[in-house]
Write a structure and sequence with these properties.
heterodimer; A: 950 residues; alpha/beta; four-stranded parallel β-sheet; 29 helices; 40 strands; B: 98 residues; mainly alpha; 4 helices; elongated
Chain lengths: 950, 98
């Protein structure tokens, strides 16, 4: 059997959380050295007894040991279908890729999808049935249900999050008919407000589908379409296409962001306006006035003159592009505000062009007669109408603020069951806990943000006593057992009638023609105007702003070490959460980064470390729902901000108290500097300058290029690998970082090691601040993998020849030669080399490792290899087929939603990477050092409004 | 079982194979050729390049008990690779080590 590859190691492994071992004394060091040498001479090769070879008795078809098999599947993440392709080795999933056939993916993924293999093998996952905290069995659970089942119809309830799975809905509908089952749905991500806003505007609940590829001017109102939403992967790709050079259809799309904390969209925007949450209404009003919404009442707008001018110019710009502009409001903004925005989009003729409306995809009480709300459940429990409650696949005690009263509610139900991946907070408050299958282990289905359905097929034989949600639902009415496959096929009996259609849908991962259809709707202006607030006031004092976390969503992905260690694109904070403050507010109160603050609201107090973020609006404390961590994480590293919210519809507002405490907590950030010290690392140009034929100003060094390496002495292979990163397309989302980690088995190191600057990411995303033309703070993102310099400074200084240049232009690491001097890292001007100070790999489940990559030991340098394992496999495959051209996608390139990264043969003038590199915007990082990097950048092109301070 | 469904179906030497098939438990073969985990070797390219199995594994058909005939160390690999024409030489570290 294949297993993760390991190098011989010196000494022992490490614990899961604290990778630091107690300091070795000289005596114990010599002892462990002796033991290692002895073990080495016993198990070293040759001479020792190698492990036995266990072949298949019956070899499965289509499985060749050493060759991966790929399966298309659809995973439901936070309720929405993500089209994926799973790489498996001998029946073991190792890597997640996007499914190019799936419209929500187009081949790319989100960071959360990338972390699913890690989740599958998480040793902390629940593996057994528990009753009142003690191990129990499925039979005992069925018995307990049967005993409670004599109750009146309608007493059995299910509580879940919104789901897009047709099979799950069908099973719930069957139970609703047979058992009178009541199904209650709550949405922790605040989407209920979006449905309510649509209902207010159009008279019925609808889901928006943005067509950012058709937009020329986009304005977001406290919204982040590029990250975290169900359609974000697709949207990031669409927007990149509308913004990147060459600009076939006129100038690139212009992006405005109006927001109360940083969003990724705001960081990517040409112009950004930071406002207090209580000013958002005024901003929407100013836009409505600028667009000329008929019947809009006159109000005094609490906005500064600068903000007023910003909104006036933006509104004029939007109005100048009817049918090609778009205003996007945050999904959890007040419904009346969202309805106003819909009316504005209708006024701008955008509906049907840049914005489509489809029937709601996910089940929700706002949209669906089949489900009821949490409030109804609460009322029914009060009235004693609930006998049995199954909490299905979610953790409402964590996902909802304590004000929702979930804990009290669970206590009042006679029989409570929880089905989930983990024995989480809710599981511990329920009578029964049932272990749930991961989506990679069972059959199912899910719809994407635009309605396209996809089938979920198992990529791993389910182990242990876990069951799928479908099976657990069938426990409720003691239905005859049916395999999941049969249940899912039953759902699709009509649509995928014959065997061929079913197999085609399985193979492609999508059910053809199942996308939602645009509904031609017009907003009812009178109703929209009727919902507007009577007056617009700006709150006094501090205000709270709550965001879904950019990595951990509503905290549900907090157990993922990969996502915890992925730096936030804005703050570069890993592991845990902080309170974001404007520099002005921090200076007034004498707060520095990391100082603990007591944030209080409505009687609740939460301690959070301060993080001073330029560009954050003054008077606002920004928090995100990053409140959970892996069980081994020290409690001091996690901060629950939920108590600050009144209820699940509360995403901030006035009434915030702030007390500065005396303690500090060092923030685990991966980048602590904000400026590039005038080195012009991120270069940019305006579209207007490009149109006048002016590209990037030359930065050529007049001195002759110098190098310690002789020129041209190296043998060159036919193919020469290189990479180009388009900084206009890159949003800095960080998917590439996680994709690289899972492809190359890069371990996480934990918060203490991140504080010591020892994170191992092979590709990092640098983030710099600059002053925008409109006076606001702009952020610039730059992914930095190894540059694979042709004149690589690292190669010169390695005393053991552990880093070598290959004939095809790779700067390769030979781990077994590395003795850990770290000279190479010292001599690398890009600081992309990473050192294993400890045996970090011991903390990664071995099963999740890529069998095509060596696992690095302690004391070894590692870095981006341009996914050399993929290159070699592709070369061999091309040779076997007799093809000259070798097509390779690196992991970062494949996962990138905006297609910012292109990799290929720079020796082939027709390759995409060569074409990009020949463009006028291409530049090399620190080119003046004459390192001749193979990784180059396409300068960022902005298209600022000429009157906004350009 | 593979071929032994049809060939030598009652040979005494193949009794463990039949037993494994019947019981559904794999035979625990003792490895003779072992490469360290940090070496990535691909049989298919070598077979496709026209190399005979015996060039690395020896005359297996004349071995009563399989033994390793080549050292299978890096120097031995490179001795052969360096004799190849330039295009097929493939002596970069990253060809086998990743």
């Amino acid at each position: 059997m294949s297993r993760g590859r390991r190098l011989p190691t010196l000494g022992t492994g490490v614990g899961r959380e604290d990778v630091r071992e107690p300091p070795l004394s000289r005596r114990s060091f010599l002892k462990s050295l002796g033991a290692t040498l002895a073990a080495g001479s016993l198990s070293g090769c040759p001479g020792g007894e190698p492990p036995e070879a266990l072949p298949y008795v019956v070899e499965p078809e289509a499985v060749t040991p050493g060759r991966p098999t790929f399966y298309a599947t659809t995973l439901e993440l936070a309720g929405w279908g993500h089209g994926l392709v799973i790489e498996t080795h001998l029946g073991r999933p190792t890597k997640v890729e996007g499914n190019p056939e799936h419209p929500a993916s187009l081949g790319a993924t989100s960071s959360q999808a990338q972390a699913q293999v890690e989740a599958l093998y998480d040793p902390a996952r629940s593996h057994a049935v528990f009753a009142q905290g003690a191990r129990a069995s499925w039979t005992a659970c069925a018995q307990a249900l049967a005993e409670a089942g004599g109750a009146r119809p309608g007493e059995v309830r299910v509580l879940s999050e919104p789901t897009t799975s047709p099979s799950l809905r069908r099973e719930l509908a069957r139970l609703g008919e047979g058992l009178g089952l009541g199904w209650h749905v709550y949405d922790p991500s605040g989407r209920e407000a979006a449905l309510a806003g649509a209902r207010l505007a159009f008279g019925r609940a609808l889901d928006p589908v943005l067509r950012l590829d058709r937009a020329r001017v986009v304005l977001t109102l406290d919204a982040d379409p590029l990250l975290g939403g169900p359609g974000s992967v697709r949207y990031a790709g669409d927007l990149a296409r509308a913004r990147r050079a060459p600009f076939a259809g006129g100038p690139p799309a212009r992006l405005y962001a109006v927001e109360s904390s940083w969003t990724l969209t705001g960081a990517h925007a040409e112009h950004r306006l930071a406002l207090r949450p209580s000013q958002l209404w005024a901003a929407a009003w100013a836009l409505a006035r600028g667009v000329g919404l008929p019947g809009l009442p006159e109000r005094a707008l609490p906005l500064e003159p600068g903000a007023r001018r910003f909104l006036e110019l933006a509104a004029r710009d939007l109005a100048a592009h009817p049918g090609a502009s778009l205003i996007v409001a945050g999904a959890h903004a007040p419904p009346a505000l969202q309805a106003l925005v819909h009316a504005l989009n209708a006024r701008l003729n955008n509906i049907g062009h840049t914005q489509e409306w489809i029937d709601p995809v996910a089940a929700s009480p706002e949209a669906d007669a089949a489900c009821r709300s949490l409030a109804q459940l609460r009322a029914d429990v009060e009235a004693g109408r609930v006998g049995t409650l199954l909490v299905l696949g979610c953790d409402p005690l964590q996902a909802l603020p304590p004000g929702e009263g979930l804990a009290e509610l669970l206590e009042r139900v006679p029989l409570t069951l929880h089905a989930g991946l983990y024995r989480d907070t809710t599981a511990r408050r329920c009578d029964w806990h049932l272990p749930l299958l991961h989506g990679l282990e069972g059959w199912g289905d899910a719809r994407g943000f635009e309605g396209t359905a996809g089938l979920q097929q198992p990529t791993l034989a389910p182990g242990l006593a876990r069951r799928s949600a479908l099976q657990i639902l069938r426990l409720l009415d003691d239905a005859p057992p049916r395999p999941d496959l049969e249940l899912v096929r039953g759902t699709w009996r009509e649509r995928l009638a014959d065997e061929r259609a079913w197999h085609e849908a399985l193979e492609r991962g999508v059910v053809a023609g199942s996308a939602g259809v645009h509904q031609d709707v017009t907003p009812d202006l009178a109703r929209v105007l009727g919902g507007l607030p009577a007056e617009l006031t700006q709150a006094a004092g501090l205000e709270l702003h709550v965001q879904l976390d950019r990595r951990l969503h509503d905290g549900r992905f907090g157990r993922s070490r990969l996502l915890q260690e992925l730096p936030d694109p804005i703050t570069k904070l890993t592991w845990g959460s902080a309170a974001l403050l404007a520099p002005e507010d921090a200076a007034d109160r004498g707060i520095e980064d990391g100082r603990l603050l007591e944030v209080s609201r409505g009687g609740a107090r939460v301690e959070l470390p301060a993080l001073i973020q330029p560009g954050h609006p003054p008077g606002v404390v920004g928090v995100s729902l990053a409140h959970s961590g892996p069980p081994t994480l020290p409690a001091a590293e996690t901060r629950d901000v939920q108590p600050l919210r009144r209820d699940s519809a509360d995403w901030g507002g006035p009434g915030l108290g702030l007390r500065v405490l005396s303690d500090t907590l060092e923030l685990a950030r991966t980048q602590r500097h904000d400026h590039d010290a005038g080195r012009e690392l991120v270069r940019s140009a305006t579209a207007a300058a490009l149109a006048r034929g002016r590209g990037l100003p030359s930065r050529e060094d007049p001195r002759p290029a110098q190098t310690l390496l002789g020129d041209g002495a190296r043998p060159r292979a036919r193919r020469q690998w290189g990479m180009s990163v388009d900084l206009t397309a890159c949003t800095g989302c960080g998917v590439c970082v996680v994709a690289c980690q899972t492809e190359n088995s890069i371990p996480t190191v934990g918060p203490a090691e991140v504080r010591a600057g020892r994170e191992l990411h092979w590709i990092r995303i640098d983030r710099y601040q600059r002053q925008g033309p409109d006076g606001g703070v702009q952020l610039e993102h730059q992914p930095v993998p190894c540059m694979h310099c042709e004149h690589a400074p690292c190669e010169l200084v390695c005393p053991t020849g552990a880093t070598q240049h290959s004939e095809d232009g790779l700067n390769a690491m030979v781990y077994n030669r590395c003795i850990g001097t770290r000279y190479c890292s010292n001599n690398c001007p890009y600081k992309v080399r990473r050192f294993n100070f400890y045996y970090y790999a011991a903390a990664t489940p071995t099963l999740a490792n890529n069998p095509d990559v060596s696992v690095r030991s302690r004391g070894v340098m590692e870095k981006c290899s341009y996914c050399v394992q993929r290159i070699r496999v592709a070369e061999r495959a091309a040779r076997a087929r007799g093809q000259r051209q070798v097509v390779v996608q690196t992991a970062c390139e494949q996962a990138c939603p905006s297609r910012a990264i292109v990799f290929g043969d720079v020796g082939d003038p027709d390759s995409e990477v060569s074409r990009r590199k020949a463009g006028p915007l291409e530049y090399a990082l620190l080119a003046e050092l004459n390192t001749r990097p193979r990784t180059t950048y396409t300068a960022r092109v902005r298209h600022p409004h000429p009157e906004l301070g350009a | 079982m593979h071929c032994h469904h049809e060939l030598y179906t009652d040979a005494a030497a193949l009794a463990p194979v039949r037993e494994s098939w019947r019981a559904g438990t794999p035979i625990a073969w003792r490895r003779v050729h072992v490469l360290p985990d940090h070496v990535f070797f691909d049989h298919s390219v070598h077979v496709r390049a026209g190399l005979e199995c015996s060039e690395c594994h020896g005359a297996v058909e004349r071995m009563p008990r399989i033994t390793q005939v080549a050292p299978l160390d890096m120097g031995w690999c490179l001795d052969c690779h360096r004799q190849q024409p330039r295009a097929a030489r493939l002596s970069d570290c990253s060809v086998c080590h990743r």
